[in-house]
């Protein structure tokens, strides 16, 4: 009887040495690694919007709007015919093709921006204002585009996640030592903490945790997977990983987010030293095994990592790659949110240009000086911009030349009286149609001489009927009208001087 009891005890001791852990003893740490693998193989959840392209679209619409309200001198140029001298210089060199495209679209009149067709606008104060706004807006949008940030991409996240799963190369190595280190079981910690190479890859650690010498370990999966769970060479280890990966509980709709990766890292740290046994207390061990060496063979069911240094992260390379991937995701999220705000600003600016364009569709009645100064066309009835003339010979009515002007750019300026007379001449009969009459003696207010009714109809244009004046000169231009026109002329002359030459050229 005693002999039978002794044999039974010896058999129990022998079996306990051969079977380190029972079925599912490593189910929890295995599931933790599966959850991490699930996140690491998921598609990075990032905003892939190309904000630079989106802003370019807004910029292009602003260019079309700008062309539609550009001055006639620019719009009427031939963009198709080559001009060697002109086309070789900036801004023509960089913009000619874009300008030609914009002009063609404006002339076709079918292009829409927010549902509004872009067509050519007639000369007016509103058109001049719209052109100035479009010019400044185009420059502002270009500045916004230069502030876009794109230091990291989704592929940078994927690269780090692949390195976490498979090691330094980011690909499963079935023969070398970038995914598995099988010699002497060092990949699992077979030589102790100091020599341990555990953590080289997530694949490596999963096989270490679940393999055994005969390949029939059931500690992770609850039942043996034939005899496929071996860690004796890189090829067998790769096979074991594929089998274990297939057994992992997966969620196919999971996205790789920074939050998910940080949670995965936290869950791994929480699974370390899970048994609370004596050897695990002094060693950084994942799994059921309670041994100072883990090799995936004679000493299975555990992964022994290098000792953690106080105040420093765990010495687990694949964990570092996960952390880097999470940081990249956060960077991308921050940059794309920044870029989204820039796009919103660009769209707001483009909408402001559209508003000024709409104003140019139904302009308010122009004053004499505004029409005189702002119209740049080939129409012979339209006076030139006086400030552009630098010689007395070119400074012709309605401009006037001042030899004593200290500013050379102001020697030729608008003569408000001449401008008014020229404008009212174009008022035609009763001020309704623009027609030229016979000579300066019959121009403007003076052409109505002593006709009080006709003179009063031009009161809005500065004409006044003076009963005390000599016969034939009772209808004349008032002093108040002259002063008003002169002030407006000076203001608009200055505005156009600032806009020349760039104000005439759309971006």
Automatic annotation (TrEMBL):
What InterPro entries does the database record attribute to this sequence?
A: Trypano_VSG_B_N_dom
Query: Is S-adenosyl-L-methionine there in the keyword field?
Result: no
Query: Pfam family of this protein, just one?
Result: VSG_B
What are the start and end residues of every segment in region (Disordered)? 361-448
What's any one GO cellular component for it? Answer: plasma membrane
Source species, domain of life: Eukaryota
Regarding the membrane, this protein is recorded as: Lipid-anchor; GPI-anchor
| Alphabetical UniProt keywords | Cell membrane, Glycoprotein, GPI-anchor, Lipoprotein, Membrane, Signal
Basic and acidic residues bias (residue ranges): 361-374
Q: Which residues cross the membrane?
A: none
Give the UniProt subcellular location, in the record's own words.
Cell membrane
- Provide the Trypanosome variant surface glycoprotein B-type N-terminal domain boundaries: 10-343
Signal peptide feature range = 1-21
* Chief site of localization: membrane
Q: What does this protein do?
A: VSG forms a coat on the surface of the parasite. The trypanosome evades the immune response of the host by expressing a series of antigenically distinct VSGs from an estimated 1000 VSG genes.
In Swiss-Prot or TrEMBL terms, this protein is called: Variant surface glycoprotein
Species name: Trypanosoma brucei
